[in-house]
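Tutorial handout. Part one gives the primary structure; part two gives the three-dimensional structure as tokens.
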Amino acid sequence: QVQVVESGGGLVQAGGSLRLSCTASGLTFADYAMGWFRQAPGKEREGVSCISGGGALTYYADSVKGRFTISRDNAKNTLYLQMNSLKPEDTAMYYCAAADSYAKACLEYTLDYWGQGTQVTVSS
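Part two.
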């Protein structure tokens, strides 16, 4: 059974930093592209960033380019999202998800497995 679990969310002041982690089990982690998505109250879920299985390809939404960095450690089955210069508009529930191809994860947003989410709140 595949499990995807996020951690690292919390409350931070504007301008601060957080690092989210996501651990996936029950699958061959390196075979899966991974993505971070977020959903704020009253808004649709949006793609934030994603990364190919080997880490060579990455994608960032324009709203986070230059502030967020996605990375992965396949030996630890773990995905990361380093978030710097946080803004109040980054406040949302952040979800980690996996798909068996970069295209599905990062272009089509057709994800195979989802975590339960971790809340990020940025105060002004």
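Part three, for discussion. The chain has a mean pLDDT of 96. The first strand starts at residue 3 and ends at 7.
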